[in-house]
Amino acid sequence: MTTFLVDNSVWQKAGSSPAIAQRLREISPHHLIITCPPQVLEYCHSARSPEEYAELREDMHELLAAWEHPSEKDALDIQQALWDNGLIRAAATFDCLIAAYAVANDAVVLNSDHDFGYIEAATHGAFRQEFIQ
Question: How far apart are CA 91 and CA 101, in angstroms?
């Protein structure tokens, strides 16, 4: 069994991308899906009304929260790896935090944006990700 942390780039496209919807269906019965605070904050940030915010927050509440929390050093080490590899602004700060949570929980980030691929390359595989479109 693999632990997955599903990025918002996937959640946002799940209803319109057959490939993403299929991959989520493949993962859900056999693997663990977790959340983490920066991912939940990003997910809920897209709400357009108080009602939608409540729905999005409940969506995330239904999933298992990450049990291990990275240190400040863990997140900064990921950002430093990007700098050290010439990928200075290749990933946003929240992506570095999400990656740190994934590493701390031995999770793979399922994503549909290239930022996590840059983090994987910069960390020489210490961080794992799966890109899907």
Answer: 15
d(CA 88, CA 78): 11
Are the CB atoms for 133 and 19 separated by under 8 Å?
yes
| pLDDT tens profile 30-67 | 999 999 999 999 999 999 999 999 999 999 999 999 99
Half-sphere exposure of 130 (CA within 13 A, CB side): 14
Say how far residue 93 (Cα) sits from the centre of its chain.
Answer: 12
Start-to-end C-alpha separation, the chain: 23
Alpha helix stretches (DSSP H) within the chain = 8-13, 18-27, 37-45, 50-61, 72-84, 93-104, 115-122
Sign of CA dihedral 79, 75, 27, 120: positive
Cβ atoms 92, 125 nearer than 8 A: no
Distance, CA of 78 to CA of 32 (rounded, Å): 24
